[in-house]
Design brief:
The structure is a homodimer.
Chain A: H1 7-14, H2 18-25, H3 33-46, H4 52-59, E1 64-70, H5 73-78, H6 81-96, E2 99-105, H7 108-120, E3 127-129, H8 137-144, E4 149-152, E5 163-166, H9 168-182, E6 186-191, H10 197-212, E7 217-222, H11 227-239, E8 246-249, H12 252-264, E9 274-279, E10 292-295, H13 298-313, E11 321-323, E12 327-329, H14 338-341
Parallel strand pairs in A: 1-2, 1-3, 3-4, 4-5, 5-11, 6-7, 6-8, 8-9, 9-10
Antiparallel strand pairs in A: 10-12
The structure holds a DNA duplex (30 and 30 nucleotides).
Chain lengths: ~350, ~350
DNA sequence: CTCGTCCATTGAACCGGTTTAGCTGACTTT
DNA sequence: AAAGTCAGCTAAACCGGTTCAATGGACGAG
């Protein structure tokens, strides 16, 4: 018995057939309690742990879940979402004995190929679908690949997969309400790409909240989510005639870049310009002024998504899950507009 | 022939045995050119791709590499290193047909267990060892697990694994030289944890460079690499008697937090305090003042590490690899100290 | 012409599990 | 007492590849 013990070693030691060992180890009915005990202790004594590879082959499961991230490296670098999300996913996977297979691809072209490859190789039993886009082709693809999945947020079309959502519009809405209540009437939104659902959803939430609050001027500038583009958008806004007195950014890196642009232009934040971010990255807390932001719990999101996907793999189709909404956290980068408070 | 085609289908179509198909597909000698061609075209016509699971079982390989990240989620969030590193790794793995299995664990306790689990389950053929620590137990562990690995940087003890290093000390050294040449004589270093080799290596480089440049006062404060702790270290330094006129941070999030602390205390950067970061995250470019930093190419590092590890798996023991050193990039957060230039 | 060599190829064992058909014997049922 | 039921278990097929000993045939050497 060189190498690690196999199921046959356990069977021999317990004096039964290997089929029965398989039954006993997988808690299947039809094994006498006494025999089961004998098998389990034989396995324990030998330090037996089943070969995942053999199990994968015969049970046609990969015991792994897939996450494909298609983002420009530049966006990924500053983004606090994925590390936290993955940490949350892992917290559930480890106990379930599954692993996470990660694929990072540079663009959306390679993305579909990555899904095909992971599925075609039988490497994963299901996918996490993050960063949903309008008419997202991945939903049909993964469905065609006959694998379960969970979407982060609701797609814009009927989907065969359960969704785990966190209402980020609530955070945007309360950011706008906060700014409006401070007296701002010219508020801009630096949005993410319109094709990305969370980008357009936040934009819509912004516009709706602005209207509801009676905000006179509500501009939207679209960006690609990078800090550089956030800076560009901020410059455009500030250089326009009748510039906004507050800007709601759809992520923290852009808000931080926007803060830099304002300061560079000699505009004081928050006295002359209020700024809010999105994601509540740790770094925002330490800026001067510290960044008011919408905090999301990406780790909890990951854990919830993992639970739903695990259930889906076991054939239980769970209902869509709604997580506690993202909350707006006022820190120092928001204040009443200049004219309203300090007429000087 | 329901389901996807198997090697037997190909064999039947080509009129040969499945053993020979296996030979032909794996470019093994002993197959007549004409037969090989017939087999290959049969495979092509059927759209055959070998089952990774079956291959894993019979060839005792996982066709995947493992990366275990043991970091507090708070540190991970702001860190630009891993996303870029992983993107670099992926660029090499995809063509080699391997996948990346990622495990994120919250602390060093779970870390060794994660390595054991990935290896015990036969999920990976090798490991990337990042964030080396003093007397790192993972080296002995992975060696005991009989898996190849590649270390990022040289361990502090003899190691059976090839190392892929990027000289980050060069960047620290030239940051200090830059500051010294501007006239700074009281320079502090906000270091990472001393147990982490890159933390202590950067600290040593700082001290050596400070001495070489004749810097009068060279303080070092140790941190846990989080922005919060970087802020704390900065406060301590600035509140001390005879505070430094320049601070060299060992990562960007801490430098950004330090910048915030200084600005909050009414200290102008760079006029009254110069600041340098480490990692060249995109966001630093957009701050006001933009952050002078040491830029590292984490993506190239990932690609190089992947190549070395792939070679090691194939049994070729490559020499240690040295990447181009990290370079210091002066932006706006460094300037001559106040007393030296603007006596006011 | 015969023997030995070598190349191309086959068949079967093997990797280590899961699954299913079928066997056994004890226990009910009429 | 014969038939039926069922829990407990075994043997073997199976998943889809890799690998290796054995084989058959072509060919050159003697």
């Amino acid at each position: 018995m060189r190498g690690r013990p196999t199921i046959s070693d356990v069977a021999a030691k317990a004096g039964v057939s290997k089929g029965l060992v398989s039954f006993a180890l997988n808690d299947r009915p039809g094994v006498a309690p006494e025999t089961r005990e004998r098998i389990l202790s034989a396995a324990r004594e030998l330090g037996f742990s089943p070969s995942l590879r053999a199990r994968s082959l015969s049970s046609a499961r990969a015991y792994a879940l897939g996450l494909v991230i298609a983002r420009d490296p530049d966006i990924l670098r500053g983004d606090p979402f994925f590390p936290a999300f993955i940490a949350g996913v892992e917290s559930e996977l480890a106990t379930a004995g599954l692993a996470l297979v990660l694929s990072v691809v540079p663009d959306e072209e390679s993305e579909l190929a990555a899904y095909r490859r992971l599925a075609g190789d039988g490497r994963v039993d299901g996918f996490f679908l993050t960063d949903l886009r309008a008419h997202d082709p991945r939903i049909a693809l993964v469905d065609e690949l006959r694998l379960p999945a969970v979407t982060l947020g609701h797609p814009d079309a009927p989907s065969p997969f359960p969704a785990v959502s966190m209402d980020d519009t609530a955070g945007i809405t309360s950011a706008v309400e906060h700014l409006a209540s401070l007296g701002h009437s010219r508020i801009a939104h630096v949005a993410g790409p319109g094709r990305m659902l969370h980008g357009s959803r936040r934009r819509d939430a912004f516009l709706a909240a602005a209207e509801a609050c009676g905000v006179k001027q509500a501009l939207v500038v679209e960006t690609d989510f990078t800090a550089a583009d956030g800076a560009r958008a901020t410059r455009e806004l500030l250089e326009g005639s009748d510039p906004p007195t507050a800007v709601v950014y759809s992520n923290d890196p852009m808000a931080i870049a926007g803060l830099g642009v304002a300061q560079r232009a000699g505009i004081e934040v928050p006295r002359q310009l209020s700024i809010t971010g999105f994601d509540g990255s740790e770094i925002g807390e330490h800026l001067h002024p510290s960044l008011s932001s919408v905090v999301t719990d990406a780790s909890a999101w990951g854990a919830a998504a993992a639970r739903v996907l695990l259930a889906a793999i076991d054939g239980e189709m769970l209902h869509d899950t709604e997580l506690p909404p993202a909350r707006f956290l006022a820190r120092e980068s928001t204040a009443p507009p200049e004219t309203a408070t300090s007429p000087h």
